[in-house]
Amino acid sequence: MAAFKKFLEADLFSSSFAVNTERGGEHAATVTHPLPAAFSDLLPHFLVEPDDVYIVKNKPVTLTCRSTPATQIYFKCNGEWVHQDDHLIERTVDPATGLPVMQVKIDISRQQVEKIFGLEDYWCQCVAWSTTGTQKSQKAYVRIAYLRKNFEEEPLGKEVALDQEVLLRCHPPEGVPTAEVEWQKNEELIDPKADPNFFITVDHNLIIKQARLADTGNYTCVAKNIVARRKSSSAAVIVYVNGGWSTWATWSACSAICGRGWQKRSRSCTNPAPLNGGTACEGQSVQTSACTATCPVDGGWSEWSKWSACGTDCTMWRSRECTQPAPGTGGKACQGLDLQSLNCTSEQCPQSE
Asked: Do the strands 286-293 and 235-240 form a parallel or antiparallel pair, or are they unpaired?
Protein backbone atom coordinates (compact mmCIF):
# COMPACT_ATOMS: atom_id res chain seq x y z
CA MET A 1 0.00 0.00 0.00
CA ALA A 2 2.89 2.34 0.80
CA ALA A 3 4.34 1.69 -2.65
CA PHE A 4 0.96 2.56 -4.21
CA LYS A 5 0.89 5.89 -2.35
CA LYS A 6 4.38 6.72 -3.60
CA PHE A 7 3.23 5.74 -7.08
CA LEU A 8 0.39 8.24 -6.88
CA GLU A 9 2.65 10.95 -5.56
CA ALA A 10 5.18 10.40 -8.37
CA ASP A 11 4.94 11.71 -11.92
CA LEU A 12 1.73 10.02 -13.01
CA PHE A 13 1.61 11.76 -16.30
CA SER A 14 4.51 10.19 -18.17
CA SER A 15 3.72 8.33 -21.33
CA SER A 16 4.09 4.97 -19.61
CA PHE A 17 2.22 3.99 -16.42
CA ALA A 18 0.65 1.03 -14.65
CA VAL A 19 -2.87 0.23 -15.77
CA ASN A 20 -5.15 -2.15 -13.87
CA THR A 21 -7.39 -3.88 -16.38
CA GLU A 22 -8.89 -6.46 -14.05
CA ARG A 23 -8.87 -7.25 -10.36
CA GLY A 24 -5.47 -8.49 -9.26
CA GLY A 25 -3.99 -8.04 -12.76
CA GLU A 26 -1.57 -5.29 -13.69
CA HIS A 27 0.61 -4.64 -16.71
CA ALA A 28 2.60 -1.82 -18.21
CA ALA A 29 0.79 0.26 -20.80
CA THR A 30 1.66 3.16 -22.96
CA VAL A 31 -0.72 6.04 -23.60
CA THR A 32 -1.91 5.24 -27.06
CA HIS A 33 -4.11 8.33 -27.28
CA PRO A 34 -2.16 11.27 -25.95
CA LEU A 35 -4.23 14.39 -25.41
CA PRO A 36 -4.66 16.48 -28.51
CA ALA A 37 -2.80 19.73 -28.23
CA ALA A 38 -6.05 21.72 -28.17
CA PHE A 39 -7.11 19.88 -24.98
CA SER A 40 -3.75 19.50 -23.30
CA ASP A 41 -4.55 22.22 -20.77
CA LEU A 42 -7.95 20.76 -19.75
CA LEU A 43 -8.67 19.57 -16.25
CA PRO A 44 -10.64 16.32 -16.07
CA HIS A 45 -14.39 16.55 -15.53
CA PHE A 46 -16.67 13.80 -14.39
CA LEU A 47 -19.17 12.12 -16.68
CA VAL A 48 -20.34 9.88 -13.83
CA GLU A 49 -19.82 10.55 -10.14
CA PRO A 50 -20.33 8.01 -7.38
CA ASP A 51 -23.74 8.21 -5.66
CA ASP A 52 -24.79 7.47 -2.10
CA VAL A 53 -25.61 3.79 -1.70
CA TYR A 54 -26.95 1.43 0.92
CA ILE A 55 -25.70 -2.03 1.76
CA VAL A 56 -28.62 -4.42 2.09
CA LYS A 57 -27.88 -7.38 4.32
CA ASN A 58 -24.50 -8.77 3.21
CA LYS A 59 -24.60 -7.79 -0.43
CA PRO A 60 -21.61 -5.59 -1.47
CA VAL A 61 -22.25 -2.36 -3.35
CA THR A 62 -20.39 -1.02 -6.38
CA LEU A 63 -19.27 2.58 -6.80
CA THR A 64 -18.67 3.85 -10.33
CA CYS A 65 -16.81 6.90 -11.55
CA ARG A 66 -16.07 8.07 -15.13
CA SER A 67 -13.97 11.09 -16.19
CA THR A 68 -12.53 12.78 -19.30
CA PRO A 69 -9.91 13.77 -20.24
CA ALA A 70 -8.24 11.47 -17.77
CA THR A 71 -4.95 9.64 -17.64
CA GLN A 72 -5.43 8.15 -14.18
CA ILE A 73 -8.43 7.60 -11.90
CA TYR A 74 -8.61 6.09 -8.42
CA PHE A 75 -10.82 6.02 -5.31
CA LYS A 76 -10.19 7.29 -1.82
CA CYS A 77 -12.38 6.03 1.04
CA ASN A 78 -12.43 7.88 4.35
CA GLY A 79 -9.28 9.71 3.34
CA GLU A 80 -7.30 6.55 2.49
CA TRP A 81 -6.42 5.41 -1.02
CA VAL A 82 -8.16 2.21 -2.00
CA HIS A 83 -5.66 -0.53 -2.83
CA GLN A 84 -4.74 -0.61 -6.49
CA ASP A 85 -5.76 -4.26 -6.79
CA ASP A 86 -9.31 -3.38 -5.68
CA HIS A 87 -9.93 -1.10 -8.68
CA LEU A 88 -11.53 -2.25 -11.90
CA ILE A 89 -10.46 0.29 -14.52
CA GLU A 90 -11.67 0.61 -18.10
CA ARG A 91 -9.99 2.95 -20.59
CA THR A 92 -11.74 4.22 -23.73
CA VAL A 93 -11.52 7.13 -26.11
CA ASP A 94 -14.35 9.50 -26.89
CA PRO A 95 -14.76 9.09 -30.66
CA ALA A 96 -16.12 12.61 -31.04
CA THR A 97 -13.27 14.44 -29.29
CA GLY A 98 -10.46 11.92 -29.20
CA LEU A 99 -10.14 12.54 -25.47
CA PRO A 100 -9.27 9.65 -23.17
CA VAL A 101 -12.12 8.46 -20.95
CA MET A 102 -11.46 6.41 -17.84
CA GLN A 103 -13.94 4.53 -15.74
CA VAL A 104 -13.24 2.95 -12.38
CA LYS A 105 -15.34 0.68 -10.17
CA ILE A 106 -14.81 -0.57 -6.64
CA ASP A 107 -16.84 -2.87 -4.43
CA ILE A 108 -17.55 -1.99 -0.80
CA SER A 109 -18.46 -4.79 1.62
CA ARG A 110 -20.47 -4.66 4.80
CA GLN A 111 -17.36 -5.63 6.77
CA GLN A 112 -15.47 -2.58 5.48
CA VAL A 113 -18.24 -0.24 6.58
CA GLU A 114 -18.69 -1.95 9.95
CA LYS A 115 -15.03 -1.34 10.82
CA ILE A 116 -15.73 2.36 11.27
CA PHE A 117 -19.46 2.08 12.09
CA GLY A 118 -20.33 4.51 14.86
CA LEU A 119 -17.10 6.47 14.44
CA GLU A 120 -18.01 8.36 11.30
CA ASP A 121 -19.86 7.90 8.04
CA TYR A 122 -18.14 5.72 5.48
CA TRP A 123 -17.52 7.73 2.33
CA CYS A 124 -15.61 7.35 -0.91
CA GLN A 125 -14.43 9.90 -3.43
CA CYS A 126 -13.07 9.55 -6.94
CA VAL A 127 -9.88 11.41 -7.96
CA ALA A 128 -9.04 11.87 -11.64
CA TRP A 129 -5.84 13.19 -13.24
CA SER A 130 -5.02 14.77 -16.55
CA THR A 131 -1.76 16.31 -17.78
CA THR A 132 -2.98 19.59 -16.32
CA GLY A 133 -4.03 18.57 -12.82
CA THR A 134 -6.53 16.67 -10.70
CA GLN A 135 -10.23 16.84 -9.89
CA LYS A 136 -12.19 15.27 -7.05
CA SER A 137 -15.71 13.94 -7.40
CA GLN A 138 -18.50 14.41 -4.90
CA LYS A 139 -18.37 12.20 -1.85
CA ALA A 140 -20.51 9.10 -1.96
CA TYR A 141 -21.67 7.84 1.42
CA VAL A 142 -22.01 4.11 1.97
CA ARG A 143 -24.39 3.17 4.72
CA ILE A 144 -25.65 -0.15 6.07
CA ALA A 145 -29.39 -0.28 5.53
CA TYR A 146 -31.64 -1.54 8.33
CA LEU A 147 -35.11 -1.18 9.77
CA ARG A 148 -35.71 -1.95 13.42
CA LYS A 149 -38.66 -4.14 14.37
CA ASN A 150 -40.43 -2.02 16.96
CA PHE A 151 -42.40 1.12 16.20
CA GLU A 152 -41.50 4.08 18.36
CA GLU A 153 -45.21 4.91 18.58
CA GLU A 154 -48.12 2.79 17.40
CA PRO A 155 -51.71 3.89 16.69
CA LEU A 156 -54.25 3.36 19.46
CA GLY A 157 -57.87 2.30 19.04
CA LYS A 158 -60.58 4.91 19.56
CA GLU A 159 -64.34 5.27 19.85
CA VAL A 160 -65.44 8.47 18.19
CA ALA A 161 -68.73 10.19 17.53
CA LEU A 162 -70.08 10.60 14.03
CA ASP A 163 -68.51 13.61 12.21
CA GLN A 164 -65.75 13.93 14.83
CA GLU A 165 -62.10 14.36 13.71
CA VAL A 166 -59.89 11.35 14.40
CA LEU A 167 -56.10 11.43 14.87
CA LEU A 168 -54.12 8.17 14.72
CA ARG A 169 -50.45 8.57 15.57
CA CYS A 170 -47.55 6.58 14.11
CA HIS A 171 -43.81 6.93 14.65
CA PRO A 172 -42.11 4.30 12.49
CA PRO A 173 -39.13 2.20 13.58
CA GLU A 174 -35.67 3.70 13.27
CA GLY A 175 -34.13 2.84 9.94
CA VAL A 176 -31.58 3.70 7.25
CA PRO A 177 -32.75 4.92 4.84
CA THR A 178 -35.64 6.51 6.70
CA ALA A 179 -38.74 4.38 6.33
CA GLU A 180 -41.65 5.47 4.17
CA VAL A 181 -45.05 5.19 5.84
CA GLU A 182 -48.42 4.21 4.47
CA TRP A 183 -51.71 3.41 6.17
CA GLN A 184 -54.11 0.53 5.74
CA LYS A 185 -57.74 0.09 6.72
CA ASN A 186 -58.81 -3.53 7.02
CA GLU A 187 -55.66 -4.54 5.11
CA GLU A 188 -56.52 -2.21 2.20
CA LEU A 189 -54.23 0.70 1.30
CA ILE A 190 -55.61 4.14 2.16
CA ASP A 191 -55.25 6.61 -0.70
CA PRO A 192 -55.95 10.22 0.42
CA LYS A 193 -56.17 11.30 -3.23
CA ALA A 194 -59.02 8.89 -3.84
CA ASP A 195 -60.72 9.71 -0.51
CA PRO A 196 -59.92 13.26 0.65
CA ASN A 197 -61.57 12.57 4.02
CA PHE A 198 -58.20 10.97 4.90
CA PHE A 199 -55.03 13.01 5.37
CA ILE A 200 -51.51 11.79 6.21
CA THR A 201 -49.35 14.41 7.93
CA VAL A 202 -45.65 15.00 7.29
CA ASP A 203 -44.87 13.21 10.56
CA HIS A 204 -46.82 10.12 9.39
CA ASN A 205 -50.01 10.53 11.46
CA LEU A 206 -53.37 9.71 9.92
CA ILE A 207 -56.25 12.16 10.22
CA ILE A 208 -59.87 11.27 9.47
CA LYS A 209 -61.39 14.69 8.95
CA GLN A 210 -65.02 13.77 9.67
CA ALA A 211 -65.69 10.28 10.95
CA ARG A 212 -68.29 8.40 8.94
CA LEU A 213 -69.96 5.12 9.79
CA ALA A 214 -68.02 3.58 6.90
CA ASP A 215 -64.76 4.61 8.61
CA THR A 216 -65.28 2.01 11.33
CA GLY A 217 -62.50 -0.55 10.96
CA ASN A 218 -58.98 -1.70 11.87
CA TYR A 219 -56.19 0.73 11.00
CA THR A 220 -52.53 -0.26 10.57
CA CYS A 221 -49.41 1.84 10.09
CA VAL A 222 -46.95 0.28 7.62
CA ALA A 223 -43.26 1.31 7.52
CA LYS A 224 -40.93 0.16 4.75
CA ASN A 225 -37.53 0.83 3.23
CA ILE A 226 -35.18 -1.12 0.96
CA VAL A 227 -34.45 -3.67 3.72
CA ALA A 228 -37.78 -4.61 5.27
CA ARG A 229 -41.45 -3.87 5.78
CA ARG A 230 -42.97 -3.55 9.26
CA LYS A 231 -46.61 -3.37 10.33
CA SER A 232 -47.84 -1.83 13.54
CA SER A 233 -50.48 -3.47 15.69
CA SER A 234 -53.99 -2.68 14.45
CA ALA A 235 -55.99 0.12 16.00
CA ALA A 236 -59.76 -0.41 16.05
CA VAL A 237 -61.72 2.74 15.26
CA ILE A 238 -65.42 2.56 16.13
CA VAL A 239 -67.63 5.38 14.89
CA TYR A 240 -70.69 5.55 17.12
CA VAL A 241 -73.96 7.44 16.80
CA ASN A 242 -75.74 8.98 19.77
CA GLY A 243 -79.51 8.62 19.71
CA GLY A 244 -81.76 11.57 18.91
CA TRP A 245 -85.48 12.10 19.49
CA SER A 246 -88.03 12.23 16.71
CA THR A 247 -90.61 15.02 16.78
CA TRP A 248 -93.59 14.59 19.13
CA ALA A 249 -96.66 12.88 17.69
CA THR A 250 -100.02 14.71 17.97
CA TRP A 251 -101.99 14.43 21.21
CA SER A 252 -104.39 11.53 21.50
CA ALA A 253 -108.13 12.04 22.10
CA CYS A 254 -109.16 12.68 25.69
CA SER A 255 -109.78 9.46 27.56
CA ALA A 256 -113.05 10.79 29.07
CA ILE A 257 -116.23 11.13 27.08
CA CYS A 258 -117.63 13.59 29.56
CA GLY A 259 -115.67 15.54 32.10
CA ARG A 260 -112.01 15.18 33.26
CA GLY A 261 -109.69 12.67 31.58
CA TRP A 262 -106.16 12.20 30.18
CA GLN A 263 -104.48 12.45 26.82
CA LYS A 264 -100.95 11.51 25.71
CA ARG A 265 -98.39 11.90 22.96
CA SER A 266 -95.17 9.98 22.18
CA ARG A 267 -91.82 10.23 20.42
CA SER A 268 -89.11 7.66 19.50
CA CYS A 269 -85.31 7.59 19.76
CA THR A 270 -84.88 7.16 16.01
CA ASN A 271 -83.55 10.48 14.77
CA PRO A 272 -81.01 8.94 14.63
CA ALA A 273 -81.19 5.62 16.44
CA PRO A 274 -78.15 4.91 18.67
CA LEU A 275 -75.49 2.79 16.94
CA ASN A 276 -72.15 1.13 17.80
CA GLY A 277 -72.47 1.87 21.50
CA GLY A 278 -73.81 5.39 21.15
CA THR A 279 -75.85 6.79 24.03
CA ALA A 280 -79.61 6.38 24.16
CA CYS A 281 -81.86 9.43 24.16
CA GLU A 282 -82.32 11.16 27.49
CA GLY A 283 -85.79 12.13 28.64
CA GLN A 284 -89.30 10.70 28.33
CA SER A 285 -90.67 8.98 25.30
CA VAL A 286 -94.31 9.56 26.42
CA GLN A 287 -96.00 12.67 27.82
CA THR A 288 -99.45 12.81 29.46
CA SER A 289 -101.70 15.78 30.09
CA ALA A 290 -105.03 16.34 31.84
CA CYS A 291 -107.98 17.12 29.64
CA THR A 292 -111.68 17.95 30.06
CA ALA A 293 -114.21 16.56 27.63
CA THR A 294 -117.38 18.60 27.12
CA CYS A 295 -120.40 16.45 28.07
CA PRO A 296 -123.15 15.85 25.48
CA VAL A 297 -126.43 17.78 26.05
CA ASP A 298 -129.74 16.18 25.08
CA GLY A 299 -132.33 18.50 23.72
CA GLY A 300 -135.47 19.43 25.79
CA TRP A 301 -138.83 20.84 24.75
CA SER A 302 -140.02 24.25 25.71
CA GLU A 303 -143.62 24.74 26.92
CA TRP A 304 -146.37 24.54 24.33
CA SER A 305 -147.51 27.82 23.03
CA LYS A 306 -151.17 28.86 23.40
CA TRP A 307 -153.63 27.49 20.92
CA SER A 308 -154.18 29.61 17.93
CA ALA A 309 -157.59 30.94 16.99
CA CYS A 310 -159.79 28.56 15.16
CA GLY A 311 -159.19 28.84 11.48
CA THR A 312 -161.56 28.68 8.58
CA ASP A 313 -160.81 24.99 8.33
CA CYS A 314 -162.05 24.58 11.90
CA THR A 315 -158.54 23.75 13.05
CA MET A 316 -156.38 25.44 15.70
CA TRP A 317 -152.62 25.03 16.27
CA ARG A 318 -149.96 25.20 18.94
CA SER A 319 -146.12 24.71 18.81
CA ARG A 320 -143.06 24.13 20.93
CA GLU A 321 -139.26 24.32 20.39
CA CYS A 322 -136.32 22.02 21.29
CA THR A 323 -134.56 24.74 23.25
CA GLN A 324 -134.88 23.72 26.88
CA PRO A 325 -132.04 22.98 26.42
CA ALA A 326 -130.99 22.87 22.83
CA PRO A 327 -129.06 19.65 21.97
CA GLY A 328 -125.27 20.11 22.00
CA THR A 329 -121.90 18.29 21.91
CA GLY A 330 -123.41 15.24 20.33
CA GLY A 331 -126.52 15.21 22.53
CA LYS A 332 -129.80 13.76 21.32
CA ALA A 333 -132.42 15.85 19.63
CA CYS A 334 -135.88 16.19 21.13
CA GLN A 335 -138.24 13.33 20.46
CA GLY A 336 -141.87 14.00 19.42
CA LEU A 337 -143.79 16.64 17.52
CA ASP A 338 -143.10 20.30 17.65
CA LEU A 339 -146.55 21.20 16.21
CA GLN A 340 -150.06 20.05 17.23
CA SER A 341 -153.45 20.69 15.65
CA LEU A 342 -156.98 20.31 17.06
CA ASN A 343 -160.41 20.52 15.47
CA CYS A 344 -162.51 23.36 16.75
CA THR A 345 -166.07 22.91 17.97
CA SER A 346 -168.83 24.03 15.64
CA GLU A 347 -169.48 27.02 17.77
CA GLN A 348 -165.80 28.16 17.41
CA CYS A 349 -165.67 27.73 13.68
CA PRO A 350 -166.05 30.97 11.87
CA GLN A 351 -169.35 31.02 9.88
CA SER A 352 -169.02 31.51 6.24
CA GLU A 353 -171.40 34.03 4.63
From this structure: unpaired
